[in-house]
Each structure stands twice: as C-alpha cells, then as structure tokens.
Write a structure and sequence with these properties.
The complex is a heterodimer. Helices cover 71% and strands 0% of the residues of chain A. The longest helix of chain A has 37 residues. By secondary structure, chain A is an all-alpha fold. Chain A is elongated and about 75 Å long. Chain B is mainly alpha-helical. Chain B has 13 helices and no strands. The chains are: A mainly alpha, B mainly alpha. Chains A and B meet through helix 3, helix 4, helix 8 and helix 10 of A and helix 1, helix 6, helix 7, helix 10 and helix 11 of B.
C-alpha cells in the first residue's frame, strides 16, 4: 500500500543530503585550506557579525578559516561514524548468526559478552581501551564499530532462531544449501528492514560518541579534525569567540536530530509492529 | 522468594567478576603491566619490588587470582602523577560526583515524572506534543554542547551564574541542569507510555464509577501500577548519568571522578583508570541490584514468580 512520504521523512532526508553535499563540495565556499593559518586574523568574528567578509563564519585561535575547518570536520565525523556503523552492523550480525548456528556453549558465551557490554556505559569501555592501548585512528574506528554491535547480534540471533523453524528454511536445507547460504541468501534479506532501521538508530549515537570523545581530546587528534574536536578547541575561547564552538555544535545537533527523525520515520514505516507496541 | 534474591545477587557478582577479568585482560594484552602501572622511568629495584608485590613472577593463573584479591581489597596501587594511593584520590573526588548526580537525578525525577503524567492525561494535546518534542530534541543535543550553550547564555551574556568550578550553591545549577536534561526527557517519555497503558484498565473505570476524584485516581490507582517501568528506566539511566558526568564534569571543571577519569586517560595514568573503571562498574551494578530489589518490594508478582 503506497503512502505519501511524511513531512518529517522528507525534511530530514533533505537536511542530511545537504550536509553530505556540503562535506563533498563545501570547499567552494572558501579560498582557504583547513590548515591555512593567518596569525593576523586570529579569532575574527563571522562576516555576518561584523567580521571580515572573507571569513563568513569567522576564524579560530590561530586564524584558520572556520568554513574550511567545519567542512573537514563534517567529513571526518560522518566517515568515522559511517565506518563504525558498518563495522558494528557486519560484525554484530555475524556474531548473531554464529551464536544461532552453533547454539550451546558458543551461544552462551557470546550472549554473556553481549550482556557484559550492555551492563556498562560504552564510553567507559572506550576510555579504558584508549588509555591502555593509546590513541590511533585505526583503534578509534574499531572502537566506534564496537559500539552497538551487541544490538545487531541479538537481532540476528533471534531472527535466525525463529526462521530456522519455518518451512522455507527447511526447504532450502532439503534442497542441499549449506547453512551460510541459508543465512546470507535467504534469512538476511528477511531481516534487512530491521537492520536498516537499527543502522539509522545507531548512526546518530555513534556521532555523539565520536564527538564526545573528540571533544574531551581523546578522539580524533590534530592535525586531523572532527566536529567534536573543533568544539573542544572552542571551549577555551567561549568568552572571546563563541562561533568556534557554536557552529560545530549546531552541526552535530542538526545531523543527529535529522538522522534520528529519519530512523523513527523509517521504523514506523518498515516495522508497523514496533509502532503499535511503543505508543 | 529467597531464590529471587539469590539469583539477583549471583548475577551481580558475575558481572563484577567479568569487569575485573576485562581490566586484567586489557592490562596484560596492552604491554608490560609493570611499565603500564608504575611508569617507564621506574628504578630497577622499584620494578623488582612491584613484581614481587603483585606476584608477576608467578604463573598466569595465580597472578589472575591475586589480581582479583588485590582489586576486591581495594588495593589499586599508586597514581603515576603524584604517587599517592589511588584509593585516596578517588575517595577525595567521589563525593563531588555523588552530590552532582544526586541533585541532577532529583531534578530530573521531579520534572520528568510529573511531565510524563501530565502528557499522558492530555494525550495528543499541546502539552503532550511539547513534551515529546522536547524529549526528541534532548536526545539529539549533545550534552557537552548544551553545557556550552548554558555557559554562553548564563555566564557570559546574562552574567548571573559562575561558568565553572565549585564553591557556592550556584555552581551546581548549570552542571546539574545539563546532566538532568536527557534523563528528564527519557523519564517523561517512559512515564507517559507507562501511564497510558494503565489509564485504560478496567480498574480505572471502576474507580471513576465509584466516584473517586480524578487526582486521587491518578495518584493512588494509576501511578503505583505504572511504577515498574518507571523504576526500570530510573535504573537504566544510572549508566547514562555516569556517562554524562564523564563529559559534563570536564565542561564545567567539576572536581569529580568523571574529570579525574578523563585526565587519567589522557595522561595514561593507568592505575587510576583501572581503579575508576572498577569503582564505576561496581556502582552501576550495585544500583541495578537495588533497582531489582525495589521491583520485588513494589510488585509481589515478581518476587513470588522468582524470575
């Protein structure tokens, strides 16, 4: 049954498309690179607020153009979150399939690890691993992937367990397909919509996690930058240069808000059962 | 009934054991634990003494057991930075976090629960929609950015509140407000849906037919029955609150354990990190146990069912 797309769905998608587009071509709005310093133009207010017109969003503590910084920050924050979301989804789904396939002790152990991760706030686990292993971009992305994998694992396990009892699964097995063919070609498409909804719900949480850690100075390290890192930089200049923290903060807010709205709208559409249960 | 308490207690102990094992594994896989815990510039005799004290010359399984004993007895070693016992440092900082958390939690409950009840009573009305919109916005707004906006508004623009540190009661306002916003939103949402579920029940109609006044119906008939999901959310939110405190204490330069953890992680003061992880995990697990016990008191069905 075809329905008209809801207003929220359209608005949220448009905002996200704009943000992604800016992260690709945003540099046409500025003549500067994100690392270009100009010590003569330190902490210049945005063009609209009485600053020089060549810096429409102002400059930071060493005279770098905020437009170029923000474009680079959006690129980094989005790609780290995207990588983290995909790693988590693939890894979690795989673990769920393994747990459901082997049952017994393997399943018990995996589900105990899932419970353990759920019993602690993830930022605590992330901080521990960062403290002991030191910070690197690779470890940081893996950490983002570790966030939320347990949800996919539980989802995938539950689906395999219930699908295995269905006639179509028995038919596929009887026709000679191996278990992995059954999981990947026959069961995975059936959970695709639930997985997509979960991805849209995890993505904003990973953005918040990345920006929190980068804000604390424990995530993305200079010379690379992310929205959280720019915001953390701006914290020391609140009294003189509000724009350094307000622009990246607003961007994070806009991205997470529209992504969550999109996720909620998708969930209502793809998974009507959930809607009747939660309201 | 005893089975219920025993089962809960066992689960709590199991989780704590997992956490200790987790820190042990991380400590042993990330490099030489001696270097990790007392620093690379330690004297050879210090290293020798440390190895002996922590039993690092013994087989791995014995080391593991000894590690558990050390952790349980609160012997977390010394901080790299000032060589004071870690347990003393944490004891200094913990009260600040507890105070802030308590104020934030009370505030969130006092605002969130009545707001949720109000939204449920006028379902679909303007107040209901405003509350739901607020909850969605509260979820998407990063708490550190909310803190910074508050500093900009109240400390720099209006100049009515101190921007950071401690000292007066006014120093509590912004950190507590920031910390409680998310929790208040979640509480409001869950209270709303729990109340909606209860309000349609036949016993509510029976009470109305009997002539019980509306306020009494809500407070004495509906609310106790909606309490279980609300208590659950309060329990689950302790984790959010701790995670929030880690970030927010840094924003407002609050001298609690959250800020201690952040500085310890960035200076790689691993003895402090390890102890804090255990202390925070223990706090969370124990408060979840407390929530479970409160369930049993609130709802005899759970207690007797022995789930």
């Amino acid at each position: 049954m075809a329905r008209r797309p809801s207003f929220i769905l359209v608005a949220a998608s448009l905002v996200l498309i704009t943000v992604v587009a800016i992260s690709f071509v945003g540099n046409i709005f500025t003549d500067y690179q994100m690392t270009d310093q100009n010590l003569m133009a330190r902490l210049k207010p945005p063009g609209l607020f009485g600053g020089p017109a060549e810096y429409p969003l102002g400059t930071d503590r060493i005279g770098r153009d905020m437009v170029a910084r923000l474009v680079a920050g959006v690129q980094m924050s989005l790609s780290v979150a995207l990588a983290g979301t995909l790693i988590g989804a693939v890894f979690g789904t795989f673990v769920g399939f393994v747990a459901a396939h082997f049952r017994g002790a393997v399943e018990e152990t995996l589900m105990m690890i899932v419970d353990f991760q759920l019993s602690l706030p993830f930022i605590l686990i992330a901080l521990t691993l960062l403290a002991f292993f030191g910070n690197s971009l690779t470890l940081f992305i893996i950490l983002m992937g570790l966030f939320g994998w347990e949800t996919y694992a539980r989802l995938a396990r539950g689906v395999v367990l219930s699908a295995s009892a269905q006639p179509y699964a028995k038919a596929v097995i009887a026709l000679g397909a191996g278990p992995w063919r059954l999981y990947l070609r026959h069961i995975l498409p059936n959970v695709a919509s639930a997985l997509i909804v979960q991805i849209t719900l995890t993505f904003p949480q990973i953005i918040l996690l990345e920006t929190s850690l980068s804000f604390l100075g424990l995530g993305i390290q200079p010379p690379m930058t992310s929205l959280g890192q720019i915001l953390g930089d701006g914290r020391d200049y609140l009294s003189t240069a509000w724009w350094i923290s307000v622009w990246p903060g607003s961007l994070i807010f806009i991205i997470t808000l529209s992504m969550s709205a999109l996720g909620d709208a998708l969930r209502d559409r793809l998974d009507p059962m959930l809607k009747t249960r939660t309201t | 009934m005893t089975r219920f308490w025993l089962f809960k207690l066992l689960r709590t102990l199991l989780t704590l054991w997992f956490v200790v094992t987790f820190t042990f594994i991380v400590l042993r896989t990330s490099g030489d634990p001696v270097v990790s815990l007392i620093g690379a510039d330690a004297l050879p005799e210090e290293i020798e003494q440390f190895r002996e004290q922590w039993g690092l010359d013994q087989p791995l399984i014995l080391q593991y057991l000894q590690y558990i004993v050390q952790m349980v007895s609160g012997n977390f070693g010394e901080s790299l930075r000032d060589h004071r016992p870690v347990i003393t440092i944490i004891a200094e900082r913990l009260p600040w976090t507890l105070m802030l958390g308590l104020v934030a939690y009370l505030g969130a409950a006092l605002v969130g629960i009545p707001a949720g009840i109000g939204a449920a009573l006028r379902r679909g009305g303007a107040f209901d929609r405003a509350i739901m919109a607020f909850a969605v916005f509260g979820f998407a707004l990063p708490n550190f950015f909310l803190g910074i906006l508050l500093i900009l508004l109240f400390s720099l623009w209006l100049q009515v509140l101190p921007s950071s540190g401690t000292g007066t009661i006014w120093h509590f306002v912004m950190p507590a407000l920031t910390l409680s916003t998310f929790t208040a939103g979640t509480l409001a949402r869950f209270t709303r849906s729990a109340m909606l579920e209860v309000l349609d029940k036949p016993y509510m109609r029976a009470a109305a037919a009997k002539g019980v006044p509306p306020v009494k119906r809500v407070l004495f008939h509906a609310l106790p029955n909606a309490a279980i999901p609300i208590v659950t959310v309060i329990g689950l939110n302790i984790g959010h609150l701790i995670a929030g405190a880690i970030v927010i204490e840094t924003v407002f330069a609050w001298p609690g354990i959250g800020r201690l953890l952040v500085t310890a992680v960035s200076s790689r003061d691993l003895a402090v990190v390890q102890a804090l992880v255990l202390v925070i995990a223990a706090t969370m697990v124990l408060s979840n146990l407390a929530v479970d016990l409160i369930y049993g008191l609130l709802d005899p069905r759970i207690r007797v069912g022995g789930r």
